[in-house]
Amino acid sequence: MNRRRLFNNFYGYLLVLPSYAIFFLFILIPCLMTVIISFTNYDLYKTMDFIGLDNYKRIILDDVFIISIRNTVVYTLFTIFPNLALGLLAAVFLSSRIFGRSFFRAAFYIPYIPSMISVSMVWLWMFDPSNGILNKIMQVLKLPQQKWLFDMDLALPCLIVIGIWKSIGYNMILYIAGIKEIPKYLYEASKIDGASSVKTFFLITLPMLRPITFFLLVTGMVSSFNVFDQVNVLTEGGPINATTTIVHQIYSRTFLTYEAGYGSAMTIVLMIIVLILTLLNFKHGSQGIDRGFV
Amino acid sequence: MEEAASRFYKSHKKYILFTVMCILSCLVLFPFVIMFLTSLKTADEILSPVFKILPERINLENYLKILQKGNWTRYFINSIFLTITVTCLSLLINSMAGFSFARIEFIGRKTLFILLMLGLMIPAQITLIPMFIIIKNFPLAGGNNLLGFGGSGLIDTYLGIMLPQLSGAFGIFLCRQFYLSFPKAIDDAAFIDGCAYPRIYFNIYLPQSKSVLISLGTLKLTYTWNDYMWPLVVVKSDRMRTVQLALASFRDEVIKWEMLMAATTLVSIPLIIVFLINQNLFTQGISTTGIKG
Q: The domain containing residue B157 runs over which residues?
């Protein structure tokens, strides 16, 4: 028996080793490294002197970084709630038996499949001020021509529209799976009691879907907070920083102006925000959850 | 009046719902329609002041031009190679680890697993800078010495793009949950027959895990094919570019829209076709991996 245990240990480690080594090297160690680098003036090549809290002092005074936090918060709030609401609405309607149901489901889900880069390219074309389809439509409707992504006030809303459009389908799919698992007798009971369908929705469907809403809220917030791809290819943070986001700042500081120490300090700020968001959500959202989550 | 409207709604509910859904899905698919129609047009049609939504005639010239232009075949080969390798390798090593966490009682299993779960919460963007440094200072690669200095390390190599993408705390977690549901008696029986754990995994567990591997594989496949940020940081030369980087690089010059749209169609169509062929599989994968855990 003892020998078996010894073998267990050996094989246990052996099978875990390859993936754990990579996990360790590319996720755990980087987390610690970020903390250390954030206290230095590392430039990705040679210089790496300890400079204490200077990077963090700089962050507080960095107007562009403050703007990027504001933009990220606006983006997150204005994508996540419409996404949840529209995804849920689509799921409710497409859970009932209507003709062409699977076609509609696929249609809503398709934007989620291609990369953010591909869909950004398509939107870039649609938003094009001189030949893009949106301005042509505006022309037909006799509305003023817009500069869309080149307009200080419109650029961020444009990115938000893309963000919403892309992930309604994802939220919908998860909600459909959740609706399927709600016991049928609840609906039968409410029907016997004569509840209207709106009432049934608010008293049965919505509360029963709470775990999924919670899951989507947490993961959606974290991923919206890390928005980068579309910013980098559509606007590069412009016009005049109107669309720059936290990750975009981290990227451009580190890899374009080679201030990796400063970039790392920003990363720490991002990490703390993401952590707080997750914890808050867990604290207020997880009450009464009886299902296991990731 | 209001009552009449509500009665009308109730009796025609199905038709109203159907019409609304038709309009909405057309709206959602509209960008893709534009993408495809633009890719069939010529440069003159796009720049002409008279706007027509349909191309004058169907010509696939732009697609041919794209494939002949620059290194586009190379970009496609890069992306296909990277995606397939990353997907297969990560499925193998992550399911192996998942099996070990589920079935073998080794010392420190719990601690290692909790660390893994913490890692699950960390988005890739946060580890970007150190990951770059590690890849750059990888020992004994790309002219680096044993301590990882002197050369460019794994920057601009296939290995450099792939290695960080192989990790998958989520995949390990999912496989573990899946293997936990297997009866333990299998292991004991195999043990009595003198079968060691690696063989139990390869001969019994792996052949049984088709369903979980397929849903995990589709997720990984899409993710790797679509990844932009990590290749952007790690790729330096033109010949190592992935299709996503190549698409983004259209912005570096005056954009030829018809070419860009043809390229975008080529890059996104494979995934959409895969999706349409096994739609159920995709959505099942998403919903089981997303919620049940």
A: 60-292
pLDDT computed for residue B29 by the predictor = 92
Q: Is the pLDDT of residue B291 over 50?
A: no
Same domain, B146 and B34: no
Task: Name which of B38, B48, B89, B125 to mutate to probe chain A: the one with the most chain A Cβ atoms within 10 A of its Cβ.
Answer: B125
Of B96, B198, B282, the CB nearest to A19: B96
Q: Does the distance separating the beta carbons of B168 and A121 come in below 8 Å?
A: no
CB contact under 8 A, A8 and B121: no
pLDDT above 70: residue B66: yes
Q: Is the pLDDT of residue A290 over 50?
A: no
Q: Cβ of A177 and B290 within 8 Å?
A: yes
Fold assignment, A62-285: MetI-like fold (1.10.3720)
Size of chain A in residues: 294
- Report the distance separating Cα A157 and Cα A244, nearest Å: 13
What are the structural domain ranges in chain A? 62-285
Q: Are residues B48 and B155 in the same domain?
A: no
Closest chain B C-alpha to A216 CA, distance in angstroms: 9
With tokens 């609405």, the residue in question is: A89
Alpha carbon separation from A113 to A16, A97, A177, B153, B218 (Å, rounded) = 31, 25, 18, 33, 11
Q: ipTM greater than 0.90, yes or no?
A: no
CB contact under 8 A, A247 and B125: yes
* Cα–Cα distance, A160 to A166 (Å, whole number): 10
B179 and B39 in a single domain? The answer is: no
Same domain, B137 and B177: yes
Q: Which of A106-110, B187-191, B285-289 has the lowest mean pLDDT?
A: B285-289
CB distance A109–B287 less than 8 Å? no
